[in-house]
Amino acid sequence: MRSLYRSLLHLYPAGYRAEYGDEMTSVFLEAHAETADCRVMTQAIFGVRELGGLLRGALREHLRNITGPYGSALFSTRRLSMHSEFRFPKATVSLMVIILVGILLTIDKAKSISASISYSRPNVGPIHAAQQLMLLPALLIILAGACVVAVIAWGVMFALQRSGLHRLSDVNPAGEQRPSGKLSI
Length: 185
Prior knowledge:
mainly alpha
């Protein structure tokens, strides 16, 4: 079984085999040693599973070499969320559910408010030019304020970065003395 596994490793691309071949072999040998005392049926299932995984992995790596890192996702048997390039924090799902519930509650509240208002009031007419002119300066003031806040935040971050980098460039991790005779920490 070990020799068959080692010979089937040659199905992988040479670069992949050079990088991961020894690790794959050692993991296989450890897992094989754990099943050595098990029943024959357990050993057979283990062998079929490992050899099937080896063949699928070799095919996947050859496809990845041909199509690039994202092309092999077309032929993958795993879910897309299992690939590292598609991962997102687990809290994202919880936050999305909370936001959805909040939106649904808001819509329900808006419907109840709308139903409670009597329709005897006249409808609001179109927005006149004088009202439109007041809207534009308010939006410009908000935009200018956001730009000022962004510039201030950038200035603070730039100042912190420069001061931190200069301090780190003076650090001597070995604790040796500098030519000036002072001990650097």
